Automatic annotation (TrEMBL):
This is Sigma-54-dependent Fis family transcriptional regulator. Pfam families: AAA_lid_14, HTH_8, Sigma54_activat. Residues 1-113 form the Response regulatory domain. Residues 122-350 form the Sigma-54 factor interaction domain. Keywords: ATP-binding, DNA-binding, Nucleotide-binding, Transcription, Transcription regulation. GO terms for biological process: phosphorelay signal transduction system; regulation of DNA-templated transcription. One of its GO terms (molecular function) is sequence-specific DNA binding. PROSITE patterns: RESPONSE_REGULATORY, SIGMA54_INTERACT_1, SIGMA54_INTERACT_2, SIGMA54_INTERACT_3, SIGMA54_INTERACT_4. PANTHER family: TRANSCRIPTIONAL REGULATORY PROTEIN, TRANSCRIPTIONAL REGULATORY PROTEIN FLGR. It comes from Photobacterium swingsii. It comes from the Bacteria. Coiled coil: none annotated.
Amino acid sequence: MFHPQHTVLDNVLANGEAEGYQLSRVTNVMGCLTTLDQQAWDLLLVPACLDDGSEAADIIALVRRQGYDGPIAVLSELPHATQVSQALQVGATDYLLIPFGHTHLGQLVQRIMQTNQSCDSVVAEAPQSKQLLQLAQRVAQTDASVLINGESGTGKEILARFIHNASPRAQSPFVAINCAAIPETMIESILFGHAKGAFTGASSAQPGKLEIANGGTLLLDEIAELPLALQTKLLRVLQEKEVERLGSHQKINLDIRVLAATNQNLEKAVAEGRFRADLYYRLNVFPLCCASLRDRTEDIIPLAKHLLKRHMALGQAATHFTDSAKRALKAYSWPGNVRELENIIQRALVMSHGCLIRAQDLMLPGQPLVTESEVSMPEELLAMDATSMANTTTTTMPVEHEPLNVTVDSEKASNKRPSLHKSRKLAEFNTIIETLRRFNGHRSKTAEELGVSTRALRYKLQTMREQGMDVEQILTNQSADFSANNYNFS
């Protein structure tokens, strides 16, 4: 949506059509909402301030509530920096300064496309996580050095790769070196490379990490662990933009983007004399901070689902977290952050039974086993089948920890008080079994006949097995009776 008072926008619109962009201009908020509702748009341009006093942040909140989830850029003049900042905080993707030309618009579109591609491996639902990615996206378009700070396991290298992938250097090398994991006697050779015969055992010339990263991005992880002597040499290389291999006097020109990461307070290290002040200021051009997982709880469940999908075996049936597992994940303090979460998810996959991960499968340190009288169907399946099960019997999932006891004792069953819940469950199980028999066990046809997805059908069959039913044996026994007199649900 373009601000009506700037005629320069007419030229951008005309040039955009010539360049292959489909651009549309509206002059008020209602027109914007109507246009968004009529057609899918890849980018929304919003003025920082409207004539009626509305600001970009208000419009962004409005279109988000309506359902638009695409990128939004703010059009602003220099005096409106405050409005731009507020818009970025509530979800704006980028901004353009007025006046601007079609070239600037093209650069914005390319920047957003690169960011969307690099976001595929990044999970950000918490407001501070979204804001961090927005800042990272902005700095990615420059060659400014970035210092990433955060506790161990918060995803500092993930953020560094995001910056590289969203930058013009995305097609060039990304080289990461952990300064704390390399012996001090080897780190100089690994960083700068060496010539043949430079030291005992140097039987051939080898390029260093700086040289390998030429044209691309170099990440210096755990930069605080770099020895003082090497800090001096690294500073000189960054200043002169050239490097010499050990044992050689030939200078190699460098064109690299340097990112650094640490879990320590470098300002304190500078004050204590453990880190050079001039190197610190060289690296800390644009500081970014990865928040701990306990401070961004909105990210925990999306991250858990992302990691679950990553570590599931090929061909494994879709697996979901129970509500109790989700509550346990959100209640835990995560001292090891995302790295600990990934370990927990891998362990839960080993411990789980069927297609559900329960709270006890997580085996979280210091947390008791969660017991519940009932557990509802995971949200993914509940939402998927809310309407599709309208023509079949509704159900509540059984006790999570105690399997359902099924006995063939009609006399005992007759003494039990009637239960509407059990009768409904029995009727649903009976319908599933009879439909499976009709289609000779064919899952897809059965799901289609029942009006549910194949994934939901697998979930229900797994639930039946977990209650002690031998589904395969029942299917082969055509005379099996699912009447309430034959089964006792306790």
